[in-house]
Amino acid sequence: MTIASEYAGFALREARGVSPTYERLALAVSGDAELLGRLGTLPAGKRQPNLLFGVVRLLGGPVDDPGGFRDFVLANWAAVDVELRRRATQTNEAGRCAVLLPVLAALPQPLALLEVGASAGLCLYPDRYAYRYGDRLVGAGEPVLECAATGVAPPARLPEVVWRAGLDLNPLRLTDPADVGWLDALVWPEHAHRRARLRAAAAVATADPPLLVRGDLVDDLPALAARAPAGATLVVFHSSVLYQVPGPRREAFARLVRGLPGHWIANEDPGVLRYDELPEPPGDALYNVLALDGRPLAFTRGHGQELVWFA
């Protein structure tokens, strides 16, 4: 895939109907030879649209006007280059808990949650948020996570979580204004509801901080998993993380996690973890595949806004 096609694909499959600003911006970048040339000097994993747009927003650049964006990136390329190389997309979208909830609630309780690629750990609190599936409300309090669910009934109750831990190469701290600023920069421009949700979820996590460990998803996972309390069901999970992991390392992780006690929930692009048989996705947008212990269950949208069950 060329850089130009990556940006055009992002515009049409991820941003269309979700963020007009990023759709317009990604299409402009896809046809700009000079910007594509600058991006081509970066490692492959540092060229993605979400990362570039987030870095420009973090540095105070404009994203609402493609011309102004282009001028800012070219004039400030040295600073943009540094931030692209040192950062990764760590979108900590609490809304993803809405697509995980039906699986988590059906597992033997209580749960010990271990998230790989946890960022600041906001997805480690599925038991603390409220959910709205159509006209059905599950749980109470803030934030309320909205999800259009098809083919599966909302759970009758929230899961019971007795331990929560996260593993990340660069865990973010909600007590650090710079880390919170990066999380905010990764929220798409029009998404005021997601920005409010980030603040509400951060308040939940700050009141009861999770165990966040800096480490590698293969080398350091067994030791962290061994810290889960006896008598609880260990659940290792991840959402939109493995696309950043090289193929051989991804395969090593899958082999490792299958050998751990408990369960494994993956919510990833279908090209990242391959399954023998999948139905056709429900539309042209980009969908993740939700799977339990290697068995695909449903299609999901990236911010947790839709769940289409097919299992």
Q: Give the C-alpha Rg.
A: 19 Å
Helix share of residues? 25-40%
Helix segment tally: 11
Query: What is the distance, rounded to the nearest whole angstrom, between the alpha carbons of the first and last residues?
Result: 31 Å
pLDDT < 50 stretches: none
Strand content: 15-25%
Number of domains: 2
Spell out the helices and strands N to C: HHHHHHHEEEEEHHEHEHEEEE
Give the CATH architecture of the largest domain.
3-Layer(aba) Sandwich
Major beta-sheet overview: 11 strands, mixed
Strand order of the largest sheet: 3-2-4-11-10-9-8-7-1-5-6
- Strand pairing plus helix content: what structural class? alpha/beta
Mean pLDDT: 96
The first-level CATH class name of the largest domain: Alpha Beta
Number of strands: 11
